[in-house]
Write the structure tokens for this entry.
Amino acid sequence: MGYTGRTRERVTKPGVRRAENIARFLIGAGGIGTIVAVSLIFFFLVWVVVPIFGGADIEEAGRTEYPGRAETSPVIKTGMDEHRLFTWALRKNGDLRVFRLDTGEQIVQRDVFENAEPTCWTFPPVTKTLEGSKQEAVFGFADGSLKAAEFKIQTKWLFEDDPPEEVKDLKIGERAQYQQGMVQVTPLGQYRYEYLEVAFKDVEDDEDDSSEVVLVDFSRQSEQDTYIGVLRKSGALAIYAAEETENAFTGKITISLSKYDLPAELDEARGDPKFLKMLGTGTGVFLVWPDGFTQRYDARYMDFEVKRADWDAGVKDEWTEYEARFPEGRDVVVVEIRPRLAETFDLVRDAEGQITSALFLNGKTTLLVGDTTGDVRAWFPAKPKAKPGTIDGIITVNAHSFEGSGTPVASLSVSQRTRMAAAGFANGDVKVFQVTNREVLAAATNQSGDAVTAIAISPKENGLLALTPNGAYQWNLELGHPESNVSSLFGKVWYEGLESSAHVWQSTGGTDDFEPKMGLMPLVFGTIKATLYSIIIAAPLAFLAAIFTTEFLDPKLRSPIKSTIEMMASLPSVVLGFLAALVLAPFVKTVLPATLAAVFLVPVTLIVGARLWQMLPTRLSIRWSRTPRFVAILLTFPLGLLLAIGVGGLMERIFFSVDGEPDIMAWLNGAGPASGGWQFLLLPMSALIVGFSLVRFAGPWQREISVQWSRKQCALFDMGKVLFWLAASFGLAMLLGELFAGMGLDARGAVGPDGQREGGLVGSYIPRNAMIVGFVMGFAVVPIIYTLAEDALSSVPIALKEGSLGAGATPWQTATRIVIPTAMSGLFGALMVGLGRAVGETMIVLMAAGNTAIMDWNVFNGFRTLSANIATELPEAPKDETHYRVLFLAALVLFAMTFVINTMAEVVRRIFRRRFAEL
Amino acid sequence: MLMKQGQPKGVLRRRSSLFARGEPMVWLTGGSLTLCLLMIVGLLVLVFARGCSTFVVAPITQIETKDGKVYLGEITREDTFEPGPEVLEALEKEQGKAAVDKIKANEGQVTRRLMRTGNFEYSGEHFHWVTDFDIAKESTPEWAVVVERHAREEASGRFYGEPVAFRIDGEVVAEGNEAAWKKFLELHPEILERREERLGIEENELGDIRDRRGEGRLELRRVELDHGKDSEQYRQQQARQTEINKKIDEDKLAIDEKIRKLIEENERYQIDFEITQRDQPVSLYLTDIVRAYPANQLTSGEKREVYLSRWGEFLLDEPREANQEGGVYPAIFGTVIMTLIMCILVVPFGVLAALYLREYAKQGTLVSIVRIAVNNLAGVPSIVFGVFGLGFFCYIVGANIDELFYAEKLPNPTFGKGGIMWASFTLALLTLPVVIVATEEALAAVPNSMREGSYACGASKWQTIQRIVLPRAMPGVITGMILAVARGAGEVAPLMLVGAVKLAPELPVDGTFPFIHGERSFMHLGFHIFDVGFQSPNAEAAKPMVFTTTLLLIFIVVSLNLVGIWVRGRLRKQFVGT
């Protein structure tokens, strides 16, 4: 740098300099900060969502020697407390021991059966009560008696001010043995005392059956409603309704039974069954033999009434297997459902396998069985749509299988919270399964290689305990969010009670042991359905309106009309949703045929109007080509609507007659012939086909012959053409409709196995449906597309237009061949932005879409979108639980969908801009 | 004009083929525009008509049906339906063939009317459908009175009846329609005043008592957290607290006494009504009556008065009857305050970001990517912002604030839940792209020559921005702000997640320190529409109110937009002028 001239004479004032620096800093920091904050949204969503996909971790937590491990009597149940302080193990001989989990030191030893050894026992899934949870149990004995028990882990808070000697010196988090259990100091400094309480209840059987109890099961359906299932040596199978009574003086609880016999069909040759399992719903009982042969009994004992007329009309056929009574003097039929054998099947894959353990998952619906081949399989009853041939229409399906390695399953255990289970194998392996997702979450082995005789998952699912003759092994589990993974979120999952895998969203249920079903596909489908139907309505409307505004409208009217439509964009969507749901939906339901007719008749009226307009003398038609023409269109439009209202009834009669009576609702529900619907649906299409063929094939001919014609003659010819077009379209639609119906197709979908039509484009009418949403959301999207499209069209350089018009092209030719192609990318961008808005719209779908998460293209059915789902469920979802994170994932999916669409729009817009720069 | 060359015969007359004019297509495009205009006009007309007619004084009709029952009430709407064959059969049995023939002559259609009959505690319904063929007699009784009242136990909703007696302390002091009514008109205003006075006391003085109690409790807990329960400070504080509580109890007794007196005085006055659901007249406490008028004998001036008074109540009072009656003042207030806070947040940050992007950042690929991202963000669904607001502001930022400053209130969250501040923050984020884009465009529109001129005169960059660029870009900034406000005011979905509630007990801004309570939940007009329209137990009664609220919301949003357009126009003109 050399000397360039005069030196600087003036100095920048320090104040200015300071202001400059401050401004630079503030704007830099503020600007960058704002942009970072905005991008934070995306990263935050990802940050919340990512843990869903994290795998499970299992970590060895050591081995302890535990008391009584050398005993030969097998452990029949083990469990632990919520905080993994102690565990308890009950052996068949009645030896119950409670010991510390960390050291193995014994806390309690008891003989609970007083020298009588039970022949069978049952430990149903843990039930949750108001005070906490309890493990219930029933034992059967050789003398035919039964005993019920409750293993409850009780929690008490010791006085902070004056703690007992044994625990006084404990620091936060430390634990010590105290009386019958353990004390731990909580982070708040409280002394939490936990201990196992075992309470036995006598069971009194009126009949006093002394035949040996071979198998027993227990099912609690509610606080009062409990059932005990019993199989005796005599071959008698019975279910007892159990009623608890408390002795007012002693406080002892006695259970008295009332019996329902089940007609057991036992085969001597098979020997005794090994397991008796009653479904939690009380509707079924499984008897499982060691080789896997299984009988399912329909355990329902009930009567129900059917109207005589309905019975004769067809209900009869559904209940041929059951007894029916015809009470005198009443116009009903009573169907008697009595317990009976419903089906038999085999639980084991090949002949050699022997069942080693069987128990219900939480919820008492899915039966989990382990066998000697090492397989763990899950079975549950499902009601298929097609009649399966069993008397109650239910079959038991093997929904999930975890193939084994050949080592027998030695023990199984289930989680108290979710559909998770753990298996211990004969070679010392342990595995943790998420059954619904068919996922093996964790696997480990104990070093000794001893068979796992008993296994337990901790109540909080954070620990696993395996008892072997050699010692107790512990693992720490960190499962993350086992209920959801990529395949369960986006793929089909076989949920309880379904006949096959399906996409289902049902995140919460009425009960604690509800199986959450979190498949996002129905919601994604709903979002796409809403977007599609609304864009089908909005895009043509907005584009055509924009073309008219820029090309044919009086320039003076353009600005007020444009701002009126822009005002539409500022209408809050909650207003549109409210009007859609409470005004439009009930209204359209009453005038459905007219509404459908309007879709076709309004354009036809306009076309006829246009042909009539052509008949005007040339001079007038030129003078009136601006505002008067628009006024004429404005007036013709309501005419079309009036026509539709008038014709609606007629149209219903022609197309949607059921047994000769016009009844569109019944038709949509599946009655009446298929042809009418096809004809109606194909009408617009055949009109397009005929119209296009006329232009394509008759056009050149018309041009040729009409060279010498006067304008009037041409117009008359065109009028005739319209009539021909209408007649031909009708004819073609009729023909095609009959053809399609003749081919066995139906717009309402094919008849499913259960006799209901499904999967059609139209179907049963729900007042809050996709058509209503499409219309109203279209209303919300129209102004956006319109504004952008209008901008794109009007920014086509005027020179291009003038050139075209100057060369003799008509305004219409100029519009279609010059203006629209030039503005194409702008129009595409407008469409994309409209799509983006429709994808994320919340209030309209929340209010007007019925919110049922079903996958169904039916225009007249409801749906549930991602956005509406988030709005309804997120306020109730507890922070950081799986449900909460899945809803965040839904938000992320929405974000991604709109991001892709908007980026496409932006890129196209940039191309568009460059192109104009060139022009 | 399409002519083949060398066509031998005829005179060539230049005229464009009709075919090329595409008249039908032009009409279709015009039809689309017509439909768009029809929709918007139809919507506005519908909302305007229904919204304005909510408060109109309707005549009271008395209908006697053929089974001897009498219904008194307002007719709210009418529709036609097609009775099934069973209904017709039953009708023929009861009323003979003529009635059925009449229906058949009308193509099987029957008209029925929905009457608002009120008197819920006696009839178990608010509305009743009356079918035309059931009507025996119809009249408009002169002394039928509409009563809007506050809920008291079972009694809620509208009340319709004829006044027959007025009682003070249970003694009849006036008998007969006119006398009782005159007495009512004479005494009702002062009773209302007393009621207002009582409510004022309850809100202010009892509120104070509550606040003092709460503060004491929190102070004690704070001391406990700081020093532990065993400490000397805790014991001292406890003693102090007992002292204070004693004083509070005394004050409360005095206030209770005052309130009791007011209530007692008010409950002396009762008016008896004859109603159609019961043979005996029933009495209403005057203090429960919000407004009553004999609808059938009002002059048009009086009708207008009732109409305006209802509008006044709507705009200035709190809701009652589960939001179905009364006003929406808290919702208007909540909407305005939330939008204001949002505006204060969004405008500076939006302008800063735009300034940075346009004036300071080095133009290149990075900046255009950022620009695309910001543009994109404008298209991100509002519910996603709501999700972010709940997860980040409420559950993370809010929960941390609670732990630091409001530990004594835990586990009850203070900022760790939805509130007006978080709602404003969320909406500010939502509207930020709008402001950035608008400001950027405005900045870009300032000609470079002006900047260069400024630099050439020796101005620094900031001086140039401050004095040349920003003022020129002001219309754009204001436009952006107005657009943001209009969007923010109408947005509901994210608010459902971050703090809008159906009924907020306290306004987010009030007279107690620190005056602006950012942690409080608030009511919002848009959410109010959703809530009353969809989650109200008595949907039929709620619907008119929803229309009125909708009208109000549209009015606010549209006028904000219009103001924006107007301001933009003015500023533009100003700059053109200079």
Notes: DSSP finds 17 helices and 13 strands in chain B. Residues 161-297 of chain B form one domain.
